[in-house]
């Protein structure tokens, strides 16, 4: 589990494109806090601070405390709009998280000890079906990630959600089936055939390219004809 990250914000008095544009010119990103059946709050955050948090990763699975106007709101980030040219944030949405509430959130999946998997040592490939899994959990119990060791796993092994040890109160949204998260797959026959076909196709071209050079070398090596003797 991780502690909530604090973000300093400022209240905004008005919405609208003109006001938002003026906010961005000041180096800030306009945003809104909504949810918990309360009135939405218009805010702005420092663009550099927001970009720093985005670059840390797992932005949408981390708990934040947004401080502004002498109060603090516990929130989750739900949306960030990016500029299509600069790829910098231009708007951010936060959702209030009340005490005792349950959130629905995607959590990253990590795979450890890949070097101890006999299947991977034999040339098998870790085929990740779900890089993230959606869970129900309490805000205080949001894990940074879920992980599983690949030690001892052979080619053909399927890793289902039931194989993960989940923290208390963390349950997958999909509960009617034991879905697959990853498999250890053998290299496909198609890949092997493709490599062989490419090698076979390249061979005639290489031989054709080498032929003129070989002919030139042969001509250079051939002794010059002797002039005919005068009678």
From TrEMBL:
Coiled coil: none annotated. Keywords: Ribonucleoprotein, Ribosomal protein, RNA-binding, rRNA-binding. SUPFAM superfamilies: Ribosomal protein L25-like. Residues 1-20 are annotated as: Disordered. InterPro entries: Rbsml_bL25/Gln-tRNA_synth_N, Ribosomal_bL25/Gln-tRNA_synth, Ribosomal_bL25_b-dom, Ribosomal_bL25_C, Ribosomal_bL25_long, Ribosomal_L25_dom, Ribosomal_uL5_bac-type. Residues 8-94 form the Large ribosomal subunit protein bL25 L25 domain. The keyword Ribonucleoprotein applies. Residues 103-187 form the Large ribosomal subunit protein bL25 beta domain. GO terms for cellular component: ribosome. It holds the Pfam family Ribosomal_L25p. Part of the 50S ribosomal subunit; part of the 5S rRNA/L5/L18/L25 subcomplex. Contacts the 5S rRNA. Binds to the 5S rRNA independently of L5 and L18. This is one of the proteins that binds to the 5S RNA in the ribosome where it forms part of the central protuberance. Belongs to the bacterial ribosomal protein bL25 family. CTC subfamily. This is Large ribosomal subunit protein bL25. It comes from Ferrovibrio xuzhouensis.
């Amino acid at each position: 589990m991780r502690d909530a990250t604090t973000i300093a914000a400022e209240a905004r008095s008005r919405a609208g494109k003109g006001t938002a544009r003026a906010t961005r010119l000041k180096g800030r990103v306009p945003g809104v806090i909504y949810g918990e059946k309360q009135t939405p709050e218009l805010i702005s955050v420092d663009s550099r601070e927001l970009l720093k948090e985005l670059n840390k990763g797992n932005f949408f699975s981390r708990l934040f405390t947004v401080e502004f106007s002498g109060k603090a709101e516990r929130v989750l980030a739900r949306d960030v709009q990016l500029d299509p040219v600069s790829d910098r944030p231009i708007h951010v949405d936060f959702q209030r998280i009340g005490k005792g509430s349950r959130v629905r959130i995607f959590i990253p999946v990590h795979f450890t000890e890949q070097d101890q998997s006999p299947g991977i040592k034999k040339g098998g490939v870790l085929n990740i079906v779900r890089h993230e899994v959606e869970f129900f959990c309490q805000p205080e119990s949001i894990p940074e990630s879920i992980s599983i060791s690949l030690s001892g796993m052979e080619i053909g092994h399927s890793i289902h959600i039931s194989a993960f040890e989940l923290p208390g109160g963390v349950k997958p949204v999909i509960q009617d089936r034991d879905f697959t998260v990853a498999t250890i797959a053998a290299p496909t026959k198609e890949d092997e055939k493709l490599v062989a076909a490419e090698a076979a196709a390249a061979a005639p071209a290489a031989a054709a390219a080498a032929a003129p050079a070989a002919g030139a070398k042969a001509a250079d090596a051939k002794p010059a004809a002797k002039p005919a003797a005068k009678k």
